């Protein structure tokens, strides 16, 4: 689809907003719950579609559908808890009311790495608030989005309330620009690369549009001397290799204190060798291919740059071409130095790097030495250290002795160049409502 189709979708969403905004919270809660029920009932088919279009192993696709559905369930409940305030007035004849209203048409641009959950996290909140949506899924994963839309209409979400614009790569930029600049669109929420996020930020400036940005991360994963190696290895594997490393909150830099370095590295190497990579529909496969050639080239070149500059691959370090052209071996690099790309860039692939440090302050300093601030992780059994480090880390989300932090109940989002706003939790609705102060005089 292209800009003309987008124009049609925006007009349909604006038209549908005229009535959807006046539905009661209870009605919206009901219809979202119906959608959730259908998404649950069709969960295996959606997982199969996702695996077919993205290569994600079925076991991960199933987990994502459960995860994505839980946002629709959560926001079906939250719809009825969007509360205003009655404020104490300084003048007896005046009353002050603060109400929250839906912003209008919300444009949602989503990535390929979580084709269902990233739509669910945005659309669930928008629809609960009383907004209508125009969703532009990533070019690699349009079918999951269309399946969700099919079920949305079956669930009774009225025509025009939830619209999908699919596109190829060539049309993504013009569709994005159109959504940013169209005055009928009240707000835009984007998950994807920092480069595109910055472009959308600039494009939205002309109309001072409401903006939510979930951008790239560069998560440190610190293992302190006080850590439990077993727990740290388990968390490291989950955080790094989930979705073949193509996750914005994936651990990107392992920082390991000198006293625990050898035992952590040995344990990590053993577990990485056990990862079963292959075609997503094969039983037992836990890790699939990279999404496309661009991702494959990016991952290969980042690793090659590190190897050329003296890093050592304890596991992997090359493509797994016998499995297919987009497979890259789970990799562990040591002797990583500041002059290597992998030290600074978000790899977005199955590549773990380890840097050794001595003192706690040094570990924290390296962890914070990035312009990104999405997630950060650390492992320690020392309670005082838990408080010191979680306060000191410059990130929107911190996992303490935990490698998987995403859940609809908690606010997801970053600081610094990792984005604006929060998704999920009760804060997730804020992007889709505005506060209106109503002053009633002469009472
Ligand atoms: N934060 C995340 O969850 C996330 C997700 C995907 C990719 N990434 C990062 O981005 C890198 C590149 O991946 P990518 O190229 O698919 O991400 P991307 O940011 O280019 O794509 C994400 C979405 O934005 C759309 N898009 C692309 N260019 C656009 C434009 N000019 N205007 C409006 N929309 C546009 C795409 O069609 C897709 O829907 C990855 O290596 C990774 O570092 C991050
Ligand atoms: N992995 C994130 C989304 C971005 O990649 C999540 O856990 O929700």
From TrEMBL:
GO terms for molecular function: succinate-semialdehyde dehydrogenase (NAD+) activity. Gene3D superfamilies: Aldehyde Dehydrogenase, Chain A, domain 1, Aldehyde Dehydrogenase, Chain A, domain 2. Keywords: Oxidoreductase. The keyword Oxidoreductase applies. The keyword Nucleotide-binding does not apply. It comes from the Eukaryota. It is an enzyme of class 1 (oxidoreductase). InterPro entries: Ald_DH/histidinol_DH (IPR016161), Ald_DH_C (IPR016163), Ald_DH_CS_CYS (IPR016160), Ald_DH_CS_GLU (IPR029510), Ald_DH_N (IPR016162), Aldehyde_DH_dom (IPR015590), Aldehyde_DH_Superfamily (IPR050740). It holds the Pfam family Aldedh. The active site is at residue 214. Residues 3-438 form the Aldehyde dehydrogenase domain. Its EC number is 1.2.1.24. PROSITE patterns: ALDEHYDE_DEHYDR_CYS, ALDEHYDE_DEHYDR_GLU. GO terms for cellular component: mitochondrion. Pathway: Amino-acid degradation; 4-aminobutanoate degradation. PANTHER family: SUCCINATE-SEMIALDEHYDE DEHYDROGENASE, MITOCHONDRIAL (PTHR43353:SF5). Belongs to the aldehyde dehydrogenase family. This is Succinate-semialdehyde dehydrogenase, mitochondrial.
